[in-house]
Every structure is written in structure tokens, then in C-alpha cells.
Design a protein that fits this description.
This protein is α+β, with helices and mostly antiparallel strands and about 170 residues long. The chain is built from 4 helices and 10 strands; from the N terminus they run ββββαβαββββαβα. The strands form 2 sheets. Strands 4-3-2-1-5 form a 5-stranded antiparallel beta sheet. A 5-stranded antiparallel beta sheet has the order 9-8-7-6-10. The model has no long low-confidence stretch (mean pLDDT about 85).
């Protein structure tokens, strides 16, 4: 049976129709958004917006507008590590936001495979988490920035100093 999609952009005061937070397609029994992995993945963004759980709006768009956004995302992310098949081993990310830029990130995360994810914790060890998953679902207003293993070592040192300062206070 052919699905009939309805398309939406998820916008905020900062993220407009021209550069939305997400592009979502909805059908009778579900919804998906186009991710930085360059594929459609299940989401509940529209449900959470409708329930008042996200400070965003869903605006209807045409199929042609959705295709334009998908092409824009593909152009933007096609050469990032998240868009290509990952090599064996860990992939590293710093988690940033408007208030916590790359030089003072929210977190350092590493991922392997599709479901294994850890963050460098205040206990100075790698612990399991789901930060990347929450970002991809839209339930965490932060961005992941792919980095090299060498950069990850630098961030691990930076965060170790931060955590030790916080423990001393």
C-alpha cells in the first residue's frame, strides 16, 4: 500500500522555514524526519509539539519544498562522518549549543555501531548514554560536531580539568 505523506518543517523563533530545525513527513500511522545520516528515521516530533513538550511549531509544506530541504541537508551533510558508513571503531563528537560552543562543549561523546554510545563523565571514565540519540530525535536542543580521535584526546583533557575544578569548588 502506498503511503500518502504530509510534509512539515519544524521551526522556532531562531530557525525559520528557510533553515528549519527539521523536515518531517507524516502518514496515518507514523512520522519520520530527515536526519544528518541522510535518511528518514522514525520520530515523534510532531506529537511532542502538539502536546506542548517542544517549544517549536510545525508548518505544513509541499512535497516539492520537502525535496528542496532534503537536497539542502544532503549537500550540507554528505561529506560528514555521520553521513558515510562509519569505519570500525569509535566515532567521536563534541556536543555544543549556543551557550556552550566548541571551545567549552557540553559533552564529549563516542559512538560505535548503531547503538553503542558513551560520554566522558565527571567521574573521568566513559559511561553509557543516549545523547546522540536524543539529539537526533530532537529531544535535546544541542548539536553534535564530529571530531577526530586526536581532537577527542584534547577534549578529554579539557573536560578532565573542568571536572576537577568543579570537584574542588
Amino acid at each position: 500500500m502506498l503511503r500518502r505523506y504530509r510534509y512539515y518543517v519544524v521551526v522556532t523563533d531562531r530557525l525559520t522555514r528557510d533553515n528549519p530545525f527539521a523536515v518531517v513527513r507524516q502518514w496515518d500511522s507514523g512520522e519520520e524526519f530527515f536526519t544528518h545520516h541522510l535518511r528518514w528515521e522514525r520520530t515523534d516530533l510532531l506529537s511532542r509539539i502538539a502536546g506542548g513538550q517542544l517549544p517549536a511549531r510545525a508548518e505544513p509544506i509541499t512535497k516539492q519544498e520537502a525535496k528542496r530541504h532534503v537536497a539542502m541537508y544532503t549537500e550540507r551533510f554528505q561529506h560528514t562522518p555521520a553521513a558515510v558508513e562509519p569505519p570500525p571503531g569509535w566515532r567521536y563528537y563534541v556536543i555544543v549549543s549556543d551557550t556552550q560552543p566548541r571551545d567549552d562543549p557540553f559533552a564529549l561523546v563516542r559512538a560505535r555501531g548503531r547503538h553503542e554510545e558513551e560520554f566522558f563523565s565527571p567521574r573521568l571514565v566513559w559511561e553509557r548514554n543516549d545523547i546522540l540519540e536524543r539529539i537526533s530525535r530532537g529531544s535535546m536542543d544541542r548539536d553534535e560536531v564530529p571530531i577526530t580521535e586526536q581532537e577527542a584526546e584534547h577534549y578529554q583533557e579539557l573536560l578532565t580539568r573542568r571536572f576537577r575544578r568543579q570537584q574542588a569548588d
